[in-house]
Design brief:
The protein is α/β, with parallel strands linked by helices and 445 residues long. It has 14 helices and 15 strands.
Length: 445
Amino acid sequence: MRNYISYSTRNIQELNQFSKIGTKRLKEIEVVSSVLPFKTNNYVADNLIDWDNIPDDPIYTLTFPRKEMLSNNHFAQLESLVQKGVTKEAISSMVNKIRTELNPHPAKQKHNIPTIDGIRLTGVQHKYRETTLFFPSQGQTCHAYCTFCFRWPQFVGFDEIKFAMKETDLLVKYLKIHPEVTDVLFTGGDPMIMKTKILETYILPLLSSELPNIQTIRIGTKALSYWPYRFLTDSDADELLILFEKIIQSGKNLAIMAHFNHPMELSTTQVVDAIRRIRSTGAQIRTQSPILKYINDSPQVWAELWRKQVNHNCIPYYMFVARDTGAQDFFSVPLVEAWNIFRMAYQSVSGVCRTVRGPSMSSTPGKIQVLGVSEIKNEKVLTMRFLQGRNPDWVARPFFAKYDDRAIWLDELKPAFDQEKFFFEEELENIFNEHISDAENDIYE
């Protein structure tokens, strides 16, 4: 059994490779991690990072804060306060101000929280008709934190941003009265941080014959990359795999939604063995990642990533676009460039790898895929479509934006052909107005 050891600014000096970091980078880590969360562990440090290539090593950049992840202005403001030796309260005030400016609430997530019997299910999100997200309260951390993660506010004390629920009773009740829901996605944080006995209390009620509408249970996790021992030698690893088997034997589909950002994460014997054990239960593994500058912004990296995944019987699923929050400015790749990288990688792999979809923005109206650059009526345009939408009728409908090779997110694009709005915008406004009205009625009832 391998003992899990986490590292943060609190104990970073205990890291075996601490001497490789250097005084200058250590100070930068301390400043940036006062705003964005920082946690890594012994598996990541010992197996995935090339310490002779920091800070440029992709897994180092993926897990260790770097100065460039804050704007020059934000970093200078914080560094100045630290150097002046001001009070913790003054630093905290500046930190919270900076966090607010980093868009901690992307895609209007709070509008996804459903209500039942006048109670807001704060650990549930229901944005797309067939899929409900569930945030178990004891799964609201990770084995290590990704520096690009759009859920960073959940780890840094922004209580009003957190999504978590302790009980499944209300979730089950909600699913019974919403037969259109076929998929429940356990997310966080990372549900695999929980002990199996705790995870069982959330999952087993969903296997009931009273919920025939639930066909697929998904578990979003980075554990295969950051702590594969969860499926190998942790004290309850065998019990976890037995739980997976129970899900399959109940007639439900189990999909492990694995996050792999770089081929290096698939290079160890531990992750290969962990994948094999999961697959032996009958579960499928689908893989996803955003396209990230300094990590995987080349077609060669993506082609290698997809091939490795398929070779290990995983299913390439999504190439996302880095969300408009946190360190987006550091990691973002322009949409046109992202599409070109996707296209070139897609062209260089066989059909079994081409299950992947992307590049896709998980934006306020839904998941929007950039299909490519076209020329229509002598106008160069970006062609896009919905892969998921707040209104299911939007799905698979193509639409067009003016060509912009610098845009990194949907809100930077403008409709093509002199249209004032994209086709979905007016209805989207009505959806949010109705949501606000419903919320006010809940308050006053």
